[in-house]
Amino acid sequence: METNYLDKRKSGISLIGDVLWGTSLCQFYQTREDLLDILGPYFKAGLENNEFCVWVTSDEENVKRLLYQTVPDIEKYLLKGQFEIISDKRWTGRSRKSDKSILARLDKAISLGFDGVRLEFDFSPDINSGKISIYHDEIETISRYNIIAIFSYPRDRFDAVGLMEIVKNHQCALIRNSGKWEVLESSDARIVRNALVRGEEKLKAVFSHMAEGFAYHRIVLDEKGQPCDYIFLEVNEAFEKFLGLKAKDIIGKRVTRVLPGIEKDPADWIGRYGKVALTGKPARFESYAKVLKKWYSVSAFSPNRGFFGITFSDITERKNYENEILKTKTEWERTFNSVPDLIVLLDNKHRVIRANKAMADRLGLTPEKCAGLHCYQVVHGLSKPPEFCPHSLTCRDKQEHTAEVHEPRLGGDFLVSTTPVLNDLGEVTGSIHVSRDITELKKTETELQTSRRFLEIANQYTDLRSLLQAFVQQTREVTNCEAVGIRLLDDSGNIPYYACDDFNAQFPGLESPLSIKSDRCMCVNVIKGTTNPDMPFYTSDGSFYINGTSRFLTTDNQGDRGRTCHVCNTLGYESVALIPIRVGVHIIGLIHLADHKENMVPLNTVKLFERVSSALGISVQRALAEMELKKRTAELETSNKELESFSYTVSHDLRAPLRSMDGYSQAMLEDYADKLDEQGKKWLTNIRASSQEMAQLIDDILGLSRVVRSELHLQNVNLSDLAGSITRELQRTQPDRQVEFIITPGLESFGDANLLKIALTNLLGNAFKFTAGCRSARIEFGFDQQDGRRVYFVRDNGAGFEMKYINKMFKPFQRLHSDKNFPGTGIGLVTVQRIIQRHGGEVWAEGEINKGATFYFTINQGKDER
Amino acid sequence: MKNKIIMLVDDNEHDVFLTQRALKKSNIANEVVVANDGQKALDYLFGKGKFAGRDPDRMPVVILLDLKMPRVDGFEVLKQIRANPQTRYLPVVIMTASKEDIDIVQGYAEGCNAYVTKPVDFNR
């Protein structure tokens, strides 16, 4: 059965054909049977087409009888409740108005699942009034809803004019004329009807081609009259496409069957549509259909009560897109506001477009309140941008700029960078202004710089007093403390002040003599390292600090109070800090800071000094070591001088008697020669020789002691020249001897000229001595290159020596030849050895009996050239 | 004939004897006046103390001066000799056991005319 569920309804009356909802017809009857001619098929059509039928009559009994005749299965419909016969009195009720009843019937019909209401009004006009009522209101109401009505009037009650009056108000009229029923349709009505039909066709065209989905539904109410379902009456092609459903599968079906689960959808489709259908108020909304997993933009309207139509489009993609954007926006917002850096977006007039939470908090405003303010005013409190403002620069040259800014209003130092924001034309519309709080960093930097200055001082001074003075000065500058002192632990366990600046005059006098055995002062605890880190006034590194001594002394710490130094407090020092000076694990002293004001020694300060104190400690140790060294050197020098003077005196005094012995012996030999025999002369000669020997010995010993003790005066020495002058001198002492001297020229070295002269004199002297018996004596002075170093030698071809006695050669007084053959004291080589050793070199010898000897030596003072 | 007096200043009697002997042996026959310490030497030169009223003709023509003497040493004597206009140009020969450079230098600095070390070779 093809049913057209739009507004066209089968009237059942062949003369009329299809009518639209809202049509009210009138019928003029002559007999009651006339009524049935029309009403029979009329209601049949209605009943068969799912319409709720109501016959309002004043003649109930007859109507029932009439119906039974014309509609065979009327019983069925009555039982079903699809047909109602009601008296007019009951219909109108007390108000004598029937539109309420009409609507009530319509609602009931809809709730029972009917398409609409088909009415028949059949009641005699008021006998008494004689007035013909024209049911304007009823007609009006009917026209708006899914209702069809026939108003039946007795023909003979009206004259022609009256008739026309009634006909005018209805779409058409049915009149029996000469036994045949005829339709009287006013031309207006006909025009309207045609227009409506054409309109419907247009509508259909739009309907099927429109991009949006369209559907028309009838709402279904539950027992309580609440919308609980709806029936698809019409859907367009777009609808089919959107939902993936075919019209023929869903028309006439309830949505709860077509889309199961829709009743539970949180978007409450049924509820919302129901409201539209019942109130007639249109609705527009965007909702998510869980059942279809799609988003729809819906426009719902109700042309007739109980019915609603929707136009909709699938906005799932757009919604997803929107959600993405929203998510991104939210993420961005969160990021923007959680970043600790202060960020503002400024326009090119320095106004704040947007500030993040960090910035707003710092300014003490909400982000909203920041907008529109001039940045230079709200941040810097100025009436125009400051010179350093990087935003101004960025606006000018479209480049990024960075600047370090100190702004106490925002609490410190910031690293500010501005990035330009350009519009499509490449013009600067503003900038993103980011400030990073570097206050802590700068503070650390400053602290590092301060530490470094202290370290520099520690390294710069080697003299103890200067070191401590400089340290104390720097400390005062850095801490602004009035009084700074440094105690050092001395050997006797006292910790006097070695440096102190600006303490109250009595203070050093009272406090300097303090022993570590005393227990009356915190200084002792700090020096001994017996500080308890659990106490708030001790640090974990063993410092003591109080920012308000008066307050401290009134606390109940019995144990510590007994040990505290009341002197500091008595003299009015409220801030006191004692920081130990450490060297490795030992504490060698402490730094004492004091001030009359409170809070001059915060923990930061104490920690700073803890950091630099070990550098100071090392320096102090070094200074003390230097002092010690100086003292010892001085002592050594004194002792040397004394020794020198002593040796000098001794040797001088020792020589005098020798002189006498030698002198008298010589005098005797000369003056008493005739009185002496050979032996006597011999013995006197021996005496002379012995005393001369002794004199020589004294000279040698004196010489050796000098060599050992004297200061080295290092300079360039031409050894060849030296050897030359020595050998010339030697030749002069024995001019008759034939000696060949071979000296390598140009041998330069670096050392003490005097000592080297002595060494060479000894070596060449020895060579000269031990070649005395040689016929062709040959003495050489030259050098070899051995193992990459220059080795000098003095070589002779004289008496030589046995290598097996080499160990004895360089020992004092050890001689390898008897005095008879070669006079000598045995000191000479020792002296040479000492001299060479003092030059950082080595000396050794090779020899062979009667072949000669070679003495090698090196001078390791670094500058041997060529 | 006026005697050209040689003054010998030395505290060691043996040195004195041997020097005098050496002078004789070298045929230097001048009279030798001996002062055995610096103070006596100065007193003689300036006519002081024990030698007050000493004959002015008996001023020595050369002084042989030892350095190491007790109380007033050779340098002091030399200094005073050179300081006094009366004696400034007297030739002074320092005669000493010391070969030390420092003494030689100081000797010449104070204005000695020669410096010889004992025992002296008078031939030289």
Task: Describe the protein in words.
The complex is a heterodimer of chains A (866) and B (124). In chain A, the strands form seven sheets. Chain A has a seven-stranded mixed β-sheet, with helices on both faces. Chain A has a five-stranded antiparallel β-sheet with strand order 11-10-14-13-12. In chain A, helix 19 packs antiparallel against helix 25 and helix 28 runs antiparallel to helix 30. The N terminus of chain A is likely disordered. Helices cover 44% and strands 24% of the residues of chain A. Chain A is α+β, with helices and mostly antiparallel strands. In chain A, a hairpin with a 5-residue loop joins strand 18 and strand 19. Chain A is rod-shaped. In chain B, strand 4, helix 4 and strand 5 form a beta-alpha-beta unit. Chain B is α/β, with parallel strands linked by helices and 124 residues long. Chain B starts with 5 loop residues before the first strand and ends in a 7-residue tail after the last strand. In chain B, strands 2-1-3-4-5 form a five-stranded parallel β-sheet. In chain B, helix 2 packs parallel to helix 3. At the A-B interface, helix 25 of A face helix 1 of B.
Strand content of chain A: 15-25%
Strand order of the largest sheet of chain A: 5-4-6-7-3-8-9
State the end-to-end distance of chain A.
Answer: 133 Å
Mean of residue pLDDT values of chain B? 84
Which two chains have the most extensive interface, and how many residues on each?
A: A-B, 11 and 13 residues
Count of DSSP-assigned helices of chain A: 30
Helix content of chain A: 40-55%
User: Which percent bin holds the helix content of chain B?
Assistant: 25-40%
**Regarding quaternary structure, how should these chains be classified?**
heterodimer
Task: Give the strand content of chain B.
Answer: 15-25%
